[in-house]
Specification:
Blueprint lengths: L1 E5 L3 H12 L3 E6 L2 H10 L3 E4 L5 H6 L7 E4 L4 H13 L4 E5 L3 H4 L4 H7 L3 E3 L1 H14 L5 E5 L4 E7 L11 H7 L6 E8 L2 E3 L12 E7 L3 H8 L8 E5 L3 H12 L3 E6 L2 H10 L4 E4 L5 H6 L7 E4 L4 H12 L5 E5 L6 H6 L4 E3 L1 H13 L3 E7 L2 E9 L20 E7 L6 E2 L11 E6 L4 H8 L2
Parallel strand pairs: 1-2, 1-4, 2-3, 4-5, 5-6, 12-13, 12-15, 13-14, 15-16, 16-17
Antiparallel strand pairs: 7-8, 8-11, 9-10, 9-11, 18-19, 19-22, 20-21, 20-22
């Protein structure tokens, strides 16, 4: 597939990396020459310097043979014009990133319809959704719904004293025969992530990603030793599009929410729009203010400003109280090591939230996609088509690459079931899979006729 990605920012770079790893022909269009040079050195993709609003630039990027154009710059106008030019050139699929709130609403619908984009992505809404999943499954540092939310991928650190620490996956599996309620799909230790097999022994301090049912989420968190509790008192730092959405949704669920916003006019607007939220006008880097507002006694603290350093600092202050579960939104991943160092529980990035939505669309038969900040392993949901090589075959007889593990099968009218070696797959099954990007083509060959 020939893919043109407009914009080499955090979302564009991440998409180029993921789609390139799958063997697609990826071209990145970027106006800034220095950024273009950097991405050309970093990734095995073609880079075209110029504006995607100029037809000649798109011709240089191969618009005549493109299957997909994704406009993911931070400039809505550039994304929209690039999408329209792509459609005029006959490109089958276009994706447009829109940040202007009014354009995403009813007033902007006529314009978006005229531009004929196939998918509109909203980084703020996607990030807010991820934060809400963490709020509902406190104790986990990652939560990704699969199978329309019936199944969850939960990321968490195995705590000291966890009953699972010291056991191999085979030993753990034997305890839960014959019906497994969870499956370990990825394990990170000392910065290295692997897809674990039966002889893998778990240790305290390992970060694991576990596929489980929503109904069993508390059980697996207890086994991992991850504390969980309902967030009744919440502090949201930053009243932008992400913070205000999260504050509004948590208040509707019955939480007592305090929101701190630095801009006085924005704080005034929010106080009128969110009457049930306590709005405080102040700087989140003011430790005295945070202390005065009882940040260390909150159940949940969410730092969602556009200033990464301020988000990390404020969450570090909250983490010092050993009470709040802390979530920091990061745009620059260079700060990611500070998250663990300062005891911050979870970090989110708009790049993964938006990229997951694009990957779901690009892959067509994939119902869900989850990618992660610190690993190239991803979780996908694939439809098994009639006549495919895997149709009617036991999982143990598939002989897929070792960088793939099948996690669960979802059949119409039935809840998802964890896959075993003797599970037989059938056409129409949706299968949740842990895989590295370079294994996706092999998976497609097995699942498509």
């Amino acid at each position: 597939m020939h893919v043109i990605i407009v914009g080499a920012g955090e979302v564009g770079r991440y998409l180029a990396q993921r789609l390139g790893a799958e063997g697609n022909d990826v071209v990145v269009v970027e106006q800034n020459a220095a950024i273009a040079a950097a991405i050309g050195d970093e990734l095995d993709v073609q880079v075209v310097i110029g504006s995607a609003t100029v037809p000649s630039t798109l011709r240089s990027a191969g618009i005549d043979k493109a299957d997909l154009l994704a406009g993911v710059t931070q400039n809505d106008e550039v994304n929209l014009v690039a999408s329209l030019l792509a459609k005029e050139a006959g490109v089958a699929q276009t994706v447009v990133r829109i940040q202007t709130e009014e354009l995403r609403g009813p007033a902007g619908k006529p314009l978006l319809d005229a531009m004929r984009a196939d998918l509109i992505i909203d980084p703020d809404a996607d990030t807010a959704d991820e934060i809400m999943e963490l709020a509902h499954v406190s104790g986990a540092d990652e939560v990704y719904p699969m199978s329309d939310g019936d199944l969850l991928v939960i990321g968490a650190v195995i705590a000291e004293g966890s009953p699972l620490a010291g056991s191999t996956l085979s030993e753990i599996g034997a305890l839960y025969e014959p019906d497994w309620r969870f499956l370990f799909g990825a394990l990170t230790r000392h910065g290295e992530t692997v897809i674990p097999r039966g002889d893998q022994r778990l240790e305290a301090g390992d970060h694991v990603r576990v596929l489980t049912s929503r109904s069993a989420r508390r059980e697996i968190l207890e086994l991992l030793g991850a504390a969980h509790r309902r967030a009744k008192r919440v502090m949201v730092l930053g009243g932008g599009a992400v913070g205000s959405r999260v504050a509004e949704r948590l208040t509707a669920e019955g939480a007592e929410v305090v929101l701190i916003e630095r801009d006085a006019e924005r704080a005034r607007v929010l106080s009128e729009r969110l009457p049930r939220v306590t709005i405080v006008n102040g700087d989140i880097e003011d430790v005295d203010l945070l202390t005065e507002e009882s940040i260390t006694r909150m159940d949940l603290v969410i730092a969602a400003t556009g200033d990464d350093a301020a988000n990390v600092l404020a969450c570090a202050v909250a983490a010092a109280g050993n009470t709040a579960f802390t979530v920091a939104v990061l745009h620059r991943l260079a700060l990611l090591p500070l998250v663990r160092q300062f005891g911050i529980d979870a970090a989110l990035s708009p790049r993964t939230a938006s990229a997951n939505a694009v990957l779901r669309h690009v892959r067509g038969g994939t119902a869900s996609v989850a990618t992660f900040l610190e690993s190239d392993i991803e979780v996908d949901e694939f439809l098994l088509e009639a006549g495919a090589p895997a149709d009617g075959v036991r999982v143990a007889d598939l002989h897929l690459p070792h960088s793939i593990v099948l996690g669960a099968v979802i059949r119409p009218g039935s809840p998802g079931k964890i896959v075993r070696g003797n599970t037989t797959l059938h056409a129409g099954d949706n299968v949740v899979v842990f895989a590295r990007p370079d294994s996706i083509p092999a998976l497609r060959r097995a699942f498509s006729p």
